[in-house]
Amino acid sequence: MKPNYKQIASWVLYDFANTPFPTIVLTFVFSTFFTKFIAKDQVVGTTLWSGALAISGIIIGLFSPIFGAIADQSGRKKPWIFTFASLVILSSFLLAYIPPDSSLVMPILAIVVIGTCCLSFAQVFYNSLLVQVAPQEMIGRISGIGWGCGYFGGLICLIITLGFLIPKDDNVQLLIIGVKGSLILVGVWFFLFALPMFFTFQEKPGKKVSFEVVKSGLNQLKETIYSIKEYNTLLGFLTAFFFYSDGITTLLNFGGIFAATVLGFSFNEVMIFAVSINLIAGLGATVFGLIDDKIGPSKLIIYSLIVITLCCVFIITFQTPLMFWIFGLLLGVFIGPLQSASRSMLAQIVPKEKITEMFGLYALTGKLSTFIGPLIISVITHFFKSKSAGLYVVLVMLSLGLFLMLKYFNLSFKRKWWMFWK
């Protein structure tokens, strides 16, 4: 298979288009704004926000495999991506339109849930197109370039957002205008940069979605779930991914909240850190994407998890702005490669005829675990009034994921562990 660089460019641009939504809405800008200025207080805000993310995770986990199985039977992915991407764009505009009033907390969170779910649903179909875009020997680097471009998209939006925001965040009215501007930017950005894929990406012809296609897809999903034990490599990877995906998603969703509520970062300080970590993560994903094809995705995942876990230990231990900056940026170097290598690994170990279905199970695994992190944080924050609970949950999940990756994919470790156990 010869690489079609026009196809590759249009596929990569979609990553560039969609990443500002999780960056601006879920991680740094709107999540921080919600907890500090919309919710009754920061503890309540953190509890409600984590609860909304937990609900999103449950919905995504339940429906992603179903959509993936149906898409594999029909052979069509672009219509699904278009539909869900349009709903994400609409969610961004609605969040900008609704007044940031504490009496409207539930409608605001409902829109966040819809946008988050649709973003992940679209990603299931988008990820499955990787094997149509990339030759086998280029999957790692193209996945890495996609993740890197995504981070750079988030970075550029954050820099533009800083232009909307006032130098000091003590003027709430000007801050509201800035946040609304950033949400409109996310919607417009997604629309503009996703267009090339819809107009230039040539998808293989498939069937129209009908009752028979849906029924066939659901039956195929049922068979795959029952026979999952036959896919030993896939099962081992998904088990590890279950835990470390939860850790990474929780880290990304609560990093800005932790900096603002525990370390006392101002709104603009959170923005500056966000710009810095997106730049670092984008470079990391792009550079390590080249290494992925050399050493293999499993090793890259293990190395990344080791560094990220150690960085979390230092951040939890010291809890100072300086240590957060140092180890937060170091951690950022390896977040992009971890995400990229996870995608490329799945693309390489599953049968092509089941690729979207498997990415649906991949999303199911990630999201079934992802709702656990926010749910635990919500409970701990509510009962213990602890605003730093998120990082402890992250540390536990990352450690479990690292242990399982070593157990399943590092043979020397497996032998040593078995000898120790005996």
Set down the secondary structure blueprint.
Elements: H1 5-18, H2 20-38, H3 42-74, H4 78-97, H5 105-128, H6 130-133, H7 139-164, H8 172-200, H9 211-226, H10 232-261, H11 267-295, H12 297-318, H13 321-349, H14 355-370, H15 372-384, H16 389-409, H17 411-421
Helix pairs in contact: 1-7, 1-8, 2-3, 2-5, 2-7, 2-8, 2-10, 2-11, 3-5, 3-9, 3-14, 3-15, 4-5, 4-8, 5-14, 7-8, 7-11, 7-13, 10-13, 10-14, 10-16, 11-12, 11-13, 12-13, 12-16, 15-16, 16-17
Overall geometry comes to globular
Mean pLDDT metric: 84
Total beta strands: 0
Overall structural class, as computed from helix and strand content, comes to: mainly alpha
CATH homologous superfamily descriptor: MFS general substrate transporter like domains
Let me know the largest β-sheet. none
Descriptors for this entry?
globular, disordered C terminus, mainly alpha, 0% strand
